[in-house]
Amino acid sequence: MVLTRSMKSWLLLGLAIVAEVIATSALKSSEGFTRLLPSIVVVIGYSVAFYFLALAIKVIPVGIAYAVWAGLGIVLISLIGWLLLGQKLDFPAVVGMLLIVAGVLVINLLSNTGAH
User: Fold this and answer.
1) Which residue has the higher pLDDT, 111 or 2?
2) What residues form the membrane-spanning segments (predicted)?
3) Residue 14 structural domain
């Protein structure tokens, strides 16, 4: 299977989101940048994330890319907080995250904004 330029851009955006989620997850462990290893993970993670985001927005409109980045980042970080850090998610939080996912799906599946 040959990846098109658009498909590569979406893959880069996915990598940017994963790097951002890793960096944000390590941010709590860095304890305000007082712990070296988690602080290094944060700096490298955000650097990688912004690098891949910059590459992705060469093709994907910046508004669409950022909506997907932010929406999926919120949901993934919330799930990590719930699963790994024991943070509570109440019903309104879950509904809100479902609405975020629905918004990302509407943008990607129904909107012509990102079409080239």
Assistant:
1) 2
2) 39-57, 64-85, 91-110
3) 5-109
Instruction: Count Cα neighbours of 23 within 13 Å in the Cβ-side half-sphere.
Output: 17
3-class SS of residue 55: helix
pTM: 0.87
Among 91, 80, 66, CA closest to 16: 66
Higher pLDDT, 109 or 65: 65
Counting the structural domains of the chain, the total is: 1
Q: Is 114 within the bounds of a domain?
A: no
Residue 72: Cβ within 10 Å count: 19
User: 38 versus 113: which is more confidently predicted?
Assistant: 38
Q: Is 10 domain-assigned?
A: yes
* Paired tokens of 100: 């975020």
> What's the whole-number mean pLDDT along residues 46-53?
98
Asked if residue 115 is part of any domain, the answer here is no
